[in-house]
């Protein structure tokens, strides 16, 4: 037993001169009643008095740990150790080892608390272990198969999805050669490819330019896959990582898509034949009509009036009838593809398109019968609220049947809010301009429609990559029956731009045209509109 005179010296050495945190914690008070100088400095307090006078702040250094649970374990076991991140009053947090020793003095419970700050190496080891655990968790829970092999082709790691893909129980793939997952017919070739990869490893997709990749399940069945390879070195040993995706669903979808494409091609061929038959019949009718018109023209004094009527009819037939008729035929064909009761909404959509196209035809016929009324001022623009993006989408959909092979229509719309314009007149203008752009452009060309709304003015541009118009012909484009000399071999009556200009005049707008031969044509419309956005 040590003499009593040794007690102050031991207390000074073991408590005051200790380099780590040493403190006496009063369990009843819920705070420290004594802390050594090193502990005060470690927790970032300016002085021992400040620390001991702050019983309301136990959550500051101990906020990141379950302090009540540690106290209970120390009281039950007499001594308990743990590791935790400790906050400072001032300064960055730090990892420490906590040692709690329970004792009683004057029948009151206390805890001797020691905090030893962990070294940077220990923290690095902890962070590395956490990183490894996170990596293992990511790989284990990945939704694709991940298999790791050594240079000899032995499987050293395989996640849960890999076992599920190949039909193996958990961990049964470990230690097996990678060739057990390859079809027998190509196993020998795969071994050669593996040696080649080991000689020059690279991050790449497997099986590039070799057709479909097949993998073999445990039961011998095969399935299509997409596999990517990567690699890394560990202690100078090469490891190869395979990322495996089952693409059975994708392949089935591709087959279904091919079948649907073939079906659509058959429907298109039938539709083209029907259109050819109808066109032939229409041409015969038009030829007979021209003959009768010539006879009537010679018999009647109003030859010019009848000639203009004939030209207008031909123009309407060639320019305007084809687009809505194509939309009707397309929608009718698509309706056949929705026989089920739960597809009624799709049928209704195409029925609405048919009704819209029929209404459009009625508008054209009414316009044909009243072209003279336009010039007499009897037709007036009737503005209504419209969404330009919806009108533009519907109009482009209506002219889809006119597109040649590889032709596309692109849009650039900067007009999100509703505007007030005559929907019928604007739609007819768009159909006419788009029909011209498609007709006078070649295959694989692009027709671009741009629209912008600013300061109660709509700017609409239709740009094509077609044959273009000479500078001399541009001066006469808006005259009735005029056709550019470089398109006389194409169908048309020369009324299209004249009709557009007439409609545009009713809307109070202007038209500008820029064209270059063999480059294309750009038509720009400027139309004022009413702004009711505040209504």
UniProtKB/TrEMBL annotation:
Keyword match Phosphoprotein: yes
Which keywords has UniProt assigned to this entry?
Coiled coil, Kinase, Phosphoprotein, Transferase, Two-component regulatory system
Q: Which residues form the Histidine kinase domain?
A: 316-531
Which terms in the Gene Ontology molecular function aspect does this entry carry? kinase activity
Question: Is Glycosyltransferase there in the keyword field?
Answer: no
Q: Which residues form a coiled coil?
A: 250-306
Q: Which SMART domains match?
A: HATPase_c, HisKA, PAS
Q: Which reaction does it catalyse?
A: ATP + protein L-histidine = ADP + protein N-phospho-L-histidine
- Top enzyme class: transferase
Residues annotated as domain PAS? 131-200
Supply the EC number(s).
2.7.13.3
- Give the protein's recorded name: histidine kinase
């Amino acid at each position: 037993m040590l003499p009593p005179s040794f007690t102050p010296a031991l207390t000074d050495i073991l408590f005051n001169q200790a380099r780590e945190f040493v403190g006496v914690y009063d369990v009843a008070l819920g705070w420290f009643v004594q802390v050594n100088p090193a502990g005060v400095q470690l927790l970032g307090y300016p002085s021992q008095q400040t620390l001991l006078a702050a019983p309301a702040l136990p959550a500051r250094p101990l906020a990141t740990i379950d302090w009540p649970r540690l106290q209970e374990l120390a009281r039950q076991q007499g001594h308990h150790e743990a590791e935790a991140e400790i906050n400072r009053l001032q300064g960055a947090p730090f990892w420490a080892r906590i040692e709690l020793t329970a004792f009683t003095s004057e029948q009151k419970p206390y805890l001797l608390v020691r905090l030893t700050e962990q070294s940077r190496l220990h923290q690095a080891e902890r962070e590395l272990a956490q990183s490894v655990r996170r990596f293992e968790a990511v790989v284990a829970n990945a939704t694709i198969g991940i298999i790791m092999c050594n240079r000899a082709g032995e499987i050293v790691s395989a996640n849960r999805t890999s076992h599920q893909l190949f039909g193996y129980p958990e961990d049964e793939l470990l230690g097996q050669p990678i060739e057990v997952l390859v079809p027998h017919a190509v196993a020998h070739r795969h071994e050669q490819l593996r040696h080649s990869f080991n000689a020059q490893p690279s991050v790449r997709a497997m099986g590039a330019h070799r057709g479909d990749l097949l993998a073999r399940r445990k039961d011998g069945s095969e399935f299509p896959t997409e596999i990517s390879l990567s690699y890394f070195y560990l202690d100078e040993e090469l490891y190869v990582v395979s990322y495996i995706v089952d693409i059975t669903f994708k392949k089935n979808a591709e087959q279904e898509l091919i079948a649907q494409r073939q079906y659509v091609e058959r429907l298109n061929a039938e539709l083209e034949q029907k259109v050819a038959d109808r066109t032939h019949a229409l041409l015969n009718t038009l030829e007979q009509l021209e003959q009768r018109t010539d006879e009537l023209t010679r018999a009647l004094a109003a030859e010019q009036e009848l000639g203009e009527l004939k030209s207008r009819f031909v123009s309407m037939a060639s320019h305007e009838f084809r687009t809505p008729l194509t939309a009707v035929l397309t929608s009718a064909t698509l309706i056949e593809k929705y026989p089920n009761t739960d597809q009624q909404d799709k049928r209704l959509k195409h029925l609405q398109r048919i009704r819209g196209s029929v209404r459009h035809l009625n508008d054209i016929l009414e316009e044909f019968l009243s072209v003279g009324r336009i010039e007499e001022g009897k037709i007036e623009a009737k503005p209504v609220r419209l969404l330009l993006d919806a009108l533009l989408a519907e109009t482009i959909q209506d002219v889809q049947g006119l597109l040649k092979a590889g032709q596309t229509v692109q849009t650039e719309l900067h007009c999100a809010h509703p505007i007030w314009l005559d929907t019928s007149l604007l739609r007819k203008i768009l159909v006419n301009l788009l029909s011209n752009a498609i007709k006078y452009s070649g295959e694989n060309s692009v027709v671009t429609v741009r629209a912008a709304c600013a300061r109660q003015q709509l700017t609409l541009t239709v740009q094509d990559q077609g044959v273009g118009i000479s500078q001399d012909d541009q001066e006469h484009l808006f005259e009735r029956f005029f056709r550019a000399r470089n398109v006389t071999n194409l169908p048309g009556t020369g009324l299209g731009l004249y009709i557009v200009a007439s409609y545009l005049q009713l809307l109070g707008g202007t038209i500008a045209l820029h064209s270059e031969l063999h480059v294309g044509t750009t038509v720009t419309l400027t139309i004022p509109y009413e702004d009711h956005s505040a209504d």
